Each structure stands twice: as structure tokens, then as C-alpha cells.
Amino acid sequence: MRALFGSYVPVELAPGVPATLVIGYRAGLAILNDPDRFTADPRDWQQTVEEDCPALPVLGWRPIPMRNTGHAHARLRSVVNAALEDVDLHAVRRAVERTAVPLINAFCTTGTADLVADYASPLVFAVITDLLGCPPAIGRKAAAQLAAIADGVDVQKAGRALEASLFELMKLKLATPGTDVASRLLHHGTALGDDEILQQLLLFYGIGMEPLQALITNTLRLLLIDEPFSDDIISGAVSTTDALEHVLFADPPLPNNCVRYPVRPALLDGVRLPAHQPVVVSVAACNNDPEITGDRRSGNRAHLAWSAGPHACPARPLAYLIAQCAMEQLLEALPGLAVAGTELRWRPGPMQRALVELPVVFEPAPPLPTY
């Protein structure tokens, strides 16, 4: 692509749905930092495509910060920021540890495990559910509905059922608010409507869980298959945070999730970008641009995995903490982990980079002390 087109590649998001894929780091960074010329609001584009366009469920407008601009973005973002700023990170660390121990104990004596299904997925779901103050009964229903959506099983029905579960959570938090994220969203000084609150909760579940789970398992994969990197972790030459940063650079969980729309025709580096046509900033391609890959990456957070500009992810400290603590708990309990088999399967689709499973073998170990 670079040889043929440079930084701007003509692509189709679906048959007959044109877009531009940005694969140059500096080009992508410039677009993400220029909201006046490149908006995140897709509604002008939506008017140009059919209602059954396959790209609409992923890119369509919703009342969430990442799909709005200007005052609407600032209003929604202020509520999400406030809900996140009050999160007690020490309590989150304790929640991760409290969740990790029984999960590890469930397989530590067997010598085998799937670190996706047996560890990362249930851990992230439990911690996010705890952050939202979601009771176990509602959480179990939401988990089943999210699994059906991920597996493509009657997606529309599962989506409606998930919304119903989150409305149930909203009613509960309106009646008996707590110190959790859901309560802070509902009782923020900037009042949001019911559908707006629902969409923020869906954002926490949808964007919060799958990418975070993938970040944990993708980093564990790196540590288990890259012996020099694993040796550096054991020796203390690099930290688990360094491993996370390496994966966010080289193999980000959301490789193509930053989409912008020119508010008017734009000419960049001699390439014309039509007004309102999607411009997909490929985080994976930009991070691996040969123009910057020679730079030192250890401790470097200049990657675009969290996006950039006004729409940069506000949950970065929280995500780092959960992922780092989850990995440390596992690696400390089972230091002899090794990947079982030679081929790992990845979930399909251009918007995610996530393992189907991460089978491992290890020397059986006694259960950890419970809290």
C-alpha cells in the first residue's frame, strides 16, 4: 500500500462504500488533531449511504463522545470524564486482585488453561461490572448478551436484550445511587437523557471490555512467544508496562477504529479527500510506519492506540492499571506458562485484533490464598 499510494489509500468499507485509509503516522496524527477540518460526527456521511449499509452498525451516529464534535462532544465528554476521574484506582487494583485469584485457582492445579476464556475475558467483565456497580444478576444477563453479539448469534435480538439489561441497571441506580460509574453518569450536574446514559453504559461495555481483554491476551502472547522479551521481564530490564506499550505500538487491539470525515473537500499531500467521505486512520499501520519505527519504543507512548486530539481515550490510566495488574497476578502465580501449539487463531474483522483463544500449559501449582 505504501509503495502504491503513500499515506492515503483508497479503499471500500463495503461494496460501493468508498473511504480513505490513512497509513502514515504523521498524516494520521495531523488528522486526529484537526477537528475543525475532520469531524468525528458521521451524520452527513450517513445521508449518502443506504439504510442497510453494512458499515452503519459500526460507524453510525450515536450520542457518545467519539461520534460527536463541538459543544455536543464537550457536553458528553465532560460527564464521562467526571465519572472516570472519581474512580479509586487503589480500589480497582484490589478488585482485579480479588477477581484474579479465584480465576487462577480454577485452573492452576490442572496444568492447562485458555487465557482468553478462563482468565482475561471473565476478569475484565467482572472488573468493569464492578466499576459500573452492576449487580451479579444483571451482570450475568449482560455477559450472555455480549457473548451472543460477539458470536454473531441473533445480534439484533441480543442487542435489544442488552439495552433492556442496562435500562434495568439505570432504574436501580436512579433509585439507590452509589459511588460507582453508573451512578455518577446518572447524577452528574450536566443532565443526560435516558438514551444518552444508556449509550454511555454501552460504550463502557463495548469499547471497555473487548479491547482491554485483547490488550491483556495480546501482551501475554508476546511474553510467552518472545523469549528475549520474556527474559527481560523476568530480569527486570523491562516492565510489564513496557510490554503493554510494545503491543500498543506493534499490535494494537483496535487497529482501525479512528474514523473522521472531512467537513469540506481537503487536499493533503496532493491527495484529494472528498467532503463527508470516511477517512479511516489505521492505528496499526500508522504505528508501524517505517518513517517512525526506527525510533526507540521502550517507554515511548507516542503510538496512536489511544487515538489523539480531543477524542483521545479518557480511560487510559484505568486500562493500564487493569491490564498490568491482571498480567502480574497471573505471571507471579504461574511463572512457567508456555503456549500450547504453534498456531493461534485471531477473530475476524478489520476493527479488532483479538485472539479467539490463548491455550497454555504449565507445571500444576497449588491454589493461591483467597481474600
Could you explain the architecture of this structure?
This protein is of the alpha+beta class and 371 residues long. It has helices at 2-5, 25-32, 43-46, 56-59, 70-85, 89-105, 116-132, 136-151, 155-175, 181-186, 194-225, 227-235, 240-250, 283-287, 316-333, and strands spanning 8-14, 17-22, 38-39, 112-114, 258-262, 266-268, 271-273, 279-281, 338-339, 359-361. It has a single domain (2-133, 178-361), classed as Cytochrome P450 (Cytochrome p450). The model has no long low-confidence stretch (mean pLDDT 90).
What is the count of β-strands?
10
Secondary-structure class: alpha+beta
Query: Roughly what fraction of the amino acids lie in strands?
Result: 5-15%
What's the main sheet like? 5 strands, mixed
Number of domains: 1
Number of helices: 15
Low-confidence stretches are: none
Q: What is the N-to-C order of secondary-structure elements (H for helix, E for strand)?
A: HEEHEHHHHEHHHHHHHEEEEHHEE
Give the averaged pLDDT, no decimals: 90
Broad shape = globular
